[in-house]
Amino acid sequence: MKRIAVLLADDHQIVREGIRSLLGDELDIEVVGEAANGRQAVQLTRKLRPAVVVMDIAMPLLNGLEATRQICRAFPETRVLILSAHEDEAYVQQAIRLGAAGFLLKQTSSQLLAQAIREVQQGNTFFNPIISRRVHHHDQKAAERNGKLQRKSHRLSSHEMEVPQLIAEGSLQKRR
pTM for the complete prediction? Predict the structure, then answer.
């Protein structure tokens, strides 16, 4: 039996260790690497080519949403599953737009996480029940509008999206 290769991306070591331990009981899932920030998640995806990346949103150096965008663009065979404490609809919708295959809340059970990994690896989407209801509601509202209120999307480069985050983290200093 081929195991599902999983990369964990979370800035909290204890969270990564806990998830690794919980997934260690799953015979068909193998954690192949861990990333402590978004940049490292992109680099390790390039190196390890996992089937699934379990990605936190709030991470230093490169947040999980931008890391998701980069991974989905560069490695379309790798599926990204967001695992976050942030349940705001804006985060969920942005994660979906950027290519995430699923969204789970950190309050979820290890069984649900394992099920989600299996589902997204097979090409399906997977959402926490509360998130799923929101996504369904959002999709219904969009269908009712019949596409008439579509906004223009202005795409920013990866670097342009990193700048506000670095400023917020105090990493960019005034250049002279």
Answer: 0.75
Strand intervals (E) in 28-88: 29-35, 52-55, 79-84
- Going along the chain from its start, the domains and CATH numbers come out as 4-168 (3.40.50.2300)
| Six-digit token string for 97 | 């737009």
In whole angstroms, give the CA distance from residue 114 to residue 21.
Answer: 12
> At CA 60, angle to CA 107 and CA 126, rounded to 5?
35
- pLDDT tens-digit profile of 9-23? 999 999 999 999 999
Helices (H) and strands (E) in the chain — how many of each?
A: 7, 6
Contact assessment for residue 86 and residue 114, using Cβ atoms and an 8 Å cutoff: no
Beta bridge partners of 79: 52
Q: Is residue 170's pLDDT more than 60?
A: no
pLDDT in tens, 118-151: 999 999 999 987 665 555 544 444 444 555 544 4
Taking each helix axis as running N to C, give the angle between helix 64-74 and helix 158-168, from 0 to 180 degrees, rounded to the nearest 10: 160
Contact indicator for 56, 64 with CB cutoff of 8 Å: yes
